[in-house]
Each structure stands twice: as structure tokens, then as C-alpha cells.
């Protein structure tokens, strides 16, 4: 402690009046900001969705177009998330457990989706798989539809959510080290045994955490999907696209009703994420530090 | 099972970890690989285990070629410096792991696994800890679990990589004795890597001293301690005083009666602190140097003295038993005569050495 010698130590721990006022002011400012920019908008979504009463709210949600958008979003997420889990584990395992040429290139490649605008990602797929794209004529010949169809939406979503699992696992696995796996190998375990019995149990919480993030993003993705979808009602519209279309058609109640579903999904994600943090110690909340000046 | 190490070499980039190392470890022997960090001892152990592939040379286990055999098939037990216990498994499951992952053909039954694990936990005196997790155990207990885990698969060779270096001094000593007892009971060929010379000399049947990727000397603890083959070994195996130059030339003259100083141009003399004789008065005919007492460390079974030779001001360490120390009753600042009871000389190449017994004089 570096208090001046003429100040009694008990006084150092007690903030002075101006200090205390400063604290209160800053906390109020932060609360105001949170309220204005986060909580109020979330409340507004539900308020707007329910403005014509619960009956109309449920009717809006039960519209065939909204339901089909909901189904498509679920389908896309249920393909994209498992793919990302497999890819994420494979990449993290390779990066943290082996040395090979091009390792740093792989690490950079994993990060590309985070730095590229989702719209650009969508356009890349149009350029490759679109009717006038590189593979377009060939796909046409074989009657395969990628762009303006479900495969394109899945591809775009996979691309955008690519880094989530890997980026969660790599630092975690690096910190854990490979001693336990080496021990398992020496004890006679083969590769699969090592993975199922040692690696997976050790990374399960970090993996779940990354999976939740990837799922949340794949449900909410708009930009990349918007480019490749073609906005065909009932066929290639995901929930976020449906929200936008309803909004542009001035069906505000319906738009907000659909938006409230996405918001609910986000809230559920946050709660699960928090539960993982609490039960597992992945990304622990820093413990409150002792007041010291 | 015997281990033959033939002309093993290993490079890490531009760093030579091992160059042309050969050694034979007999079945049932406990061998310590001793050396400073970077001497290649851990690399050699990992090559024996199959965790590292040598650039050249071969490893024979029980006379059979094993150089390209994978680590999981060599039938070895390995104990890591930082335990490497499976953190999500109970102590019981940790020890059972090696039995559970065996191929279906030789996989023991549940009852057999239970029996074997309990037998091992009893051996390491942790039978009441079976249901606990590694993080609930102390460092010494964890390393005992690690040893039980390694022994569960009845390895033909047990390899230990600095197993006690992360533990505090008292536990380290306990576990060391205890490892020796287990070895005497099971007679499994054991290789222990350590940088602690006391540990190596106390536990092992044979000590191999490594430096810069080469074997400096192999022998029984007594042989390497009493007859070090090189200045490095002498220095590494305990505290030592070095004397250079003219003083030594005279010394060699006195003993042999012919002029070694002319043949061996420059020599270094090694004297261990306990080989120094101290006295307040100079016995008749004894040559000695005069030194002042700088500090006295009297805690422990032996008393250590820091001395400074008057004239050239070189520091010298001496060690006395308590009785002699009490006889002398020295205090810091006093002057005392110092001479070696024995001294070992090496020329610059570190090749030749000779011993001068008591009475050699300076």
C-alpha cells in the first residue's frame, strides 16, 4: 500500500466525499446508457409486438410464412452448428496438439469470417455458385440449386459462424496442455480412446460455450444469408429475413412479433451461456478485488 | 526387461539434444539419468518411451528392435513431472485407465480391474482416496497416484521424468525412499531422469551423467562420486573448490618427485569442501595456505565455512563435522591454515587425472 504517511490507514480505505460523488455519477451514467441502448429497445420489441393484444400476436406468429421461416432457420442452424462443432474440434486439436507447416496460415484462415463483412461473404458465394458464377453452368446442367436455395443459405451460415467453436477451444486447449493425452497414449490408448476418454471430457464446457455462440449467430445471421437467399417467401426466407420483409411491407405488428422470437432466442442463449460460466468455470467472472488505493 | 540405447542422436533445429549416445540398461536395474537442464536427459527418456523419434540410432527393448514402435505398444509406464493425472476422473478411474483402454482380447474383466486398482492403491497407500479427484490431493499424493497408474498395466519398463522436482524438499525425500522400496519389491527396470545429484546418487543402482547431449560417465553412485571422469562430473556431483595454476604445479611436483608441471602445462585441481583440513597451527612439515573465516553456517549435521585465501582473495568453501568444528572454535574474521587431504587434477582437455592422498601438502 502506498498511502502517504500522514494519512491514517483507515482513511485510505474510505473514499472521500468528492470520490464518492464521482463514483455515483459514473454508475448512474452507465445505468442510463444500458437502459437507453439495451433494455429499452428490448422492451420496445415486445411492447410493439403485443401492442394489438396477445391474440393478434399469436396470429402473426402462426402465419404460414412466419412458421416456414422459423422451420428454415431451425434447419439451417441444425446443419451449420454440428458442422462447426466438428470443424472447430478438428482445427483446435490440430493447432494445439501438432506442429505442421502452414499452421499460422490455418489460424489466420479461421479468423477471416470475423473480418469479412457478411454481405461480402454472401457475394462470394453468388460469384462461385450463382447462375453466372464459376460453377453456375455446371450446377445448372446437373440441376443443382445452391444460390437462391437452401444449400446456399446453409453455406453462407456455415461460413459466418466458422470461427466460433475453434476460437473458443484453441486458447482453452493451449492452456490445458497435452500432458494428459500423452499419458493416455503411453498407457496404451489409441487415438479414438484418447479423444473420447480424455480430450472431450476436458473441453466439454468450452465446446458447449462455443456451440451456443455459433448457434446464436446462425439463428440471427442476416447479411450473408440475405444475399444468397433470393427472398422467396415460404421457401428461402429465414426468420431475420422474414422480419425485414414484414417490416418493409408496413406489417409492424407481425414484424415485431417475429422479431420477438429472435429476441427470445437471444435471451435464452444468454441464460444458457451464463449457466455454463457459473457451473464450469469457463470464462469465470473475475472475483471482486479488495478495495485498495 | 533390458534397454539398449545405440548411437542415438537428436536435433531440435540447430540445437543438438543428443549426439551419438549409447548405453545399456540391464533388466531390473534402477538407472538415473543425471544432468543439468539442456543436457538431453529428458529427450533420451522420451525417445526410450517412444514419445520422440530419434534422428539416428536405435532403441532395443529386451533385445528387440523398438525404434519405430509407437509409444502405446511399448509396454512402458511413464511418470510425468507435473503428474498429468486425468483431472475429470476419480483416483480409481485414473489408475484403471490403462486397463480399460486395452484391446478387447486382453482386456481384464470389471472385477479384475477393481481388484488390480485396489491392490495398487494399497501399494501407494492411497486406498481411502479412490473416490476423490486429483485436485483434492496434495502434490506428493498425486505423484503416488501417477505411479500407481503407470504400474497398473504391469509395464516392463518404468520411466520417470523429474518426478519429484515439483515437490517440496521433505516430500521429495520421502517419495525418493519410497520409490526405491517399490523398485526393490517389483524389480521393474526403471529409468529416472533428474537434475538433483543427491537424488540420483541416493536412489539409483547406476548413474549416467549427461552433458550437452553426451554421456560423460556411467557407473555406480560411489564410483562416479569417488572417481569422476571429467571436471564436469566432479563439479556437478557436489560442491567443489577449484584451484588453478602455479600452486597446483608445485603440488604435483611434491607428490611424484618429478616435474609434472612441465608435462601438464596448466592444470585445475578439484577439492571437495569436506576434503579440506583446517587448523589454527601448522603441523611440522605441512604446507598450507592461510585463509580468513568469512562466514560460518552451523545449522545442520555439518558445519560449512566460507573462507578467503589471504593474498589472492579467492573464496574457498570448507565443511567440517561438528566435533572438529567445536574443537577449533573458529569465529568469523579469524585466520586459519588450510590444506587438502586429497586433490584431483585435470589438464585443460579434462583428460588425465591423478589423485594425491593425504600428506601431499602444498
CATH first level of the largest domain in chain A: Mainly Alpha
Question: Helicity range of the residues of chain A?
Answer: over 70%
- Report strand % of chain A: under 5%
What proportion of the residues of chain B form beta strands (DSSP E)?
25-35%
Largest sheet of chain A: none
**Rough outline of chain A:** globular
How many domains of chain A? 2
Query: Spatial order of the strands in the main sheet of chain B?
Result: 6-7-8-3-9-10
Short description:
With 293 residues, chain A is mostly helical. Chain A contains 14 helices and no strands. Chain B is an alpha+beta fold.
Structure, explained:
The complex is a heterodimer of chains A (293) and B (362). Chain A is mainly alpha-helical and 293 residues long. The longest helix of chain A is centred in the first third of the chain and has 34 residues, at 64-97. In chain A, helix 3 (53-61) crosses helix 14 (252-280), helix 4 (64-97) runs antiparallel to helix 11 (191-220) and helix 8 runs antiparallel to helix 12. Chain A folds into 2 domains: 15-49; 53-280, MetI-like fold (Orthogonal Bundle). The relative contact order of chain A is 0.13. Helices cover 76% and strands 0% of the residues of chain A. Chain B has 362 residues and is of the alpha+beta class. Helix content of chain B is 29%, strand content 31%. In chain B, the strands form 4 sheets. A 6-stranded mixed beta sheet of chain B has the order 6-7-8-3-9-10, sandwiched between helices. Chain B has a 5-stranded antiparallel beta sheet with strand order 13-17-14-15-16. The chains are: A mainly alpha (293), B alpha+beta (362). Chain A binds chain B through residues 179-180, 182-190, 193, 197-198, 201-202, and chain B through 49, 51, 70-73, 76-78, 80, 82, 84-88, 97-98, 100-102, 149-150, 152-153.
Amino acid at each position: 500500500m502506498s498511502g502517504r504517511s500522514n494519512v491514517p490507514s483507515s482513511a485510505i480505505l474510505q473514499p472521500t466525499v468528492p470520490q464518492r460523488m464521482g463514483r455515483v455519477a459514473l454508475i448512474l451514467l452507465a445505468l442510463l446508457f444500458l437502459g437507453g441502448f439495451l433494455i429499452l429497445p428490448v422492451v420496445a420489441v415486445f411492447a410493439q409486438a403485443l401492442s394489438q393484444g396477445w391474440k393478434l400476436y399469436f396470429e402473426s406468429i402462426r402465419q404460414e410464412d412466419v412458421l416456414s421461416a422459423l422451420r428454415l432457420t431451425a434447419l439451417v442452424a441444425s446443419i451449420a452448428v454440428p458442422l462447426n462443432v466438428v470443424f472447430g474440434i478438428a482445427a483446435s486439436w490440430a493447432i494445439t496438439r501438432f506442429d505442421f507447416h502452414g499452421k499460422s496460415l490455418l489460424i489466420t484462415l479461421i479468423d477471416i469470417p470475423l473480418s469479412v463483412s457478411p454481405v461480402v461473404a454472401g457475394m462470394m458465394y453468388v460469384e462461385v455458385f450463382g447462375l453466372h458464377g464459376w460453377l453456375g453452368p455446371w450446377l445448372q446442367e446437373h440441376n443443382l440449386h445452391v444460390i437462391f436455395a437452401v444449400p446456399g443459405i446453409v453455406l453462407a451460415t456455415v461460413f459466418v459462424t466458422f470461427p466460433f467453436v475453434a476460437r473458443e477451444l484453441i486458447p482453452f486447449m493451449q492452456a490445458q496442455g497435452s500432458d494428459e493425452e500423452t499419458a493416455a497414449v503411453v498407457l496404451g490408448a489409441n487415438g479414438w480412446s484418447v479423444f473420447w476418454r480424455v480430450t472431450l471430457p476436458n473441453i466439454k464446457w468450452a465446446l458447449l460455450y462455443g456451440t451456443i455462440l455459433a448457434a446464436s449467430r446462425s439463428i440471427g445471421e442476416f447479411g450473408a444469408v440475405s444475399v444468397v437467399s433470393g427472398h422467396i417467401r415460404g421457401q428461402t426466407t429465414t426468420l431475420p429475413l422474414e422480419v425485414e420483409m414484414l417490416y418493409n411491407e408496413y406489417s409492424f405488428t407481425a414484424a415485431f412479433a417475429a422479431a420477438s422470437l429472435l429476441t427470445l432466442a437471444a435471451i435464452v442463449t444468454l441464460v444458457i451461456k451464463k449457466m455454463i460460466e457459473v457451473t464450469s468455470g469457463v470464462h469465470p467472472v473475475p472475483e471482486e478485488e479488495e478495495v485498495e488505493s | 526387461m533390458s534397454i539398449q540405447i545405440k548411437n542415438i542422436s537428436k536435433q531440435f533445429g540447430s540445437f543438438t539434444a543428443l549426439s551419438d549416445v549409447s548405453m545399456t540398461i540391464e533388466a531390473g536395474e534402477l538407472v538415473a539419468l543425471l544432468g543439468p537442464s539442456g543436457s538431453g536427459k529428458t529427450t533420451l527418456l522420451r525417445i526410450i518411451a517412444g514419445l520422440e523419434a530419434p534422428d539416428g540410432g536405435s532403441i532395443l527393448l529386451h533385445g528387440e528392435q523398438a525404434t519405430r514402435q509407437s509409444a502405446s505398444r511399448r509396454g512402458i509406464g511413464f511418470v510425468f513431472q507435473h503428474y498429468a493425472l486425468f483431472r475429470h476422473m476419480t483416483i480409481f478411474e485414473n489408475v484403471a485407465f490403462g486397463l480399460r483402454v486395452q484391446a478387447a482380447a486382453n482386456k481384464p474383466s470389471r472385477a479384475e480391474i477393481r481388484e488390480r486398482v485396489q491392490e495398487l492403491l494399497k501399494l501407494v497407500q492411497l486406498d481411502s482416496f479412490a473416490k476423490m479427484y486429483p485436485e483434492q490431493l496434495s502434490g506428493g499424493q498425486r505423484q503416488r497416484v501417477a505411479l500407481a497408474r503407470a504400474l497398473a498395466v504391469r509395464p516392463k519398463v518404468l520411466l520417470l521424468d523429474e518426478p519429484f522436482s515439483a515437490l517440496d524438499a521433505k516430500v521429495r525425500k520421502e517419495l525418493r525412499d519410497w520409490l526405491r522400496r517399490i523398485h526393490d519389491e517389483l524389480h521393474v527396470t526403471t529409468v529416472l531422469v533428474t537434475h538433483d545429484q543427491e537424488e540420483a546418487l541416493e536412489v539409483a543402482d547406476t548413474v549416467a551423467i549427461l552433458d550437452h547431449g553426451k554421456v560423460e560417465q556411467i557407473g555406480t553412485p560411489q564410483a562416479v562420486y569417488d572417481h569422476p571422469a571429467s571436471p564436469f562430473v566432479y563439479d556437478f556431483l557436489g560442491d567443489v573448490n577449484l584451484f588453478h595454476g602455479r600452486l597446483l604445479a608445485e603440488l604435483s611436483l611434491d607428490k611424484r618427485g618429478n616435474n609434472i608441471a612441465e608435462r601438464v602445462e596448466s592444470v585445475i585441481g578439484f577439492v571437495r569442501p569436506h576434503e579440506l583440513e583446517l587448523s589454527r597451527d601448522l603441523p611440522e612439515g605441512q604446507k598450507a595456505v592461510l585463509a580468513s573465516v568469512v562466514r560460518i553456517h552451523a545449522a545442520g549435521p555439518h558445519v560449512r565455512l566460507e573462507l578467503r585465501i589471504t593474498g589472492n582473495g579467492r573464496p574457498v568453501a570448507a565443511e567440517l563435522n561438528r566435533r572438529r568444528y567445536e574443537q577449533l572454535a573458529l569465529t568469523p574474521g579469524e585466520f586459519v591454515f588450510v590444506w587438502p587431504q586429497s586433490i584431483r587434477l585435470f589438464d585443460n582437455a579434462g583428460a588425465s587425472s591423478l589423485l594425491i592422498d593425504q600428506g601431499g601438502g602444498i
